[in-house]
Amino acid sequence: MRAGSRIRGLLGPTGSHRIDRSGTVPAYRGTVSTLPLTIDPKAATAPFEQVRTQIAAAVAEGRLVAGTRLPTVRQLAADLGLAANTVARAYRELEADSVIATHGRGGTFVRSEVVDEPTTHSSAADAARVAANDYVHSVRRLGLSAPEALRLVENAWNKG
What we know:
Blueprint: E1 7-11, E2 35-39, H1 47-60, E3 69-70, H2 73-80, H3 84-96, E4 100-102, E5 108-110, H4 123-141, H5 146-159
Antiparallel strand pairs: 1-2, 3-5, 4-5
């Protein structure tokens, strides 16, 4: 990272992005919400901590909701002009704090108390898991595939 530069990265769908003359990464285009991150190389705070605190604050404030997919370590590092190990450390600390959950090659997501292993129990989350298990057993008995079952859920969800 060039001394004195401010580079902005955006959380959103991955893709190739060029840094323009102003030192910003163009906004991601797509349906995933974006979150601008700013790394200040002159700050006393380490870059990994800047990434960690900005993502944690966005989750706490509801700007990043449960289930939001985060970019890969390499993609975010490239967008911010940081080393991959710097972003990896921020992600590890966010995961240790139960802010995000990594699902191997499946990606990294903002943690969901319903989908991820719950750290606390709530009756709504427990009821949702029971309903999901009951639904899976029913559609399997009917011979539906996972994509068909998911499409039925999406159709029902969109009807309200």
